[in-house]
Amino acid sequence: MNQTLDVRTPNKFDNKYYFDLVARQGLFKSDQGLIEHATTNRTAVRFALNQAAFFDQFAKSIVKMSQMDVLTGTQGEIRLSCAVPNKPASIQTVAAATDDEDQGLAADM
Q1: Which of 49, 69, 90, 101 has a CA that sits 20 to 30 A from residue 78's CA?
Q2: Distance CA 46, CA 67 (A)
Q3: Tens digit of pLDDT per residue, the chain (109 long)?
């Protein structure tokens, strides 16, 4: 089931998400907190009132994210919960079906 996060303009990329927060019509309490918290209120209100400011900051943020190093292999992890690092996995060798096949690794979490 899909939930529309922007009920004003669901098929358009714009700043109406922030407009809804200012109007106290945010879908999630955590999102509504952007308006209610002193640290983020000014930015959220600016984005609601100034779509060009939102687009400008969005573009800068996308460029910054594209410059991040991607962790691959054993350098990173896919977290079960974003806020909590996974417990260290114990690695076990998985026996191959035949001697000709590569052995794989399985992690117990």
Answers
A1: 101
A2: 26
A3: 677 777 788 889 999 999 999 999 888 898 999 999 999 999 999 999 999 999 999 999 999 999 888 877 788 888 888 888 888 766 554 444 444 444 444 444 4
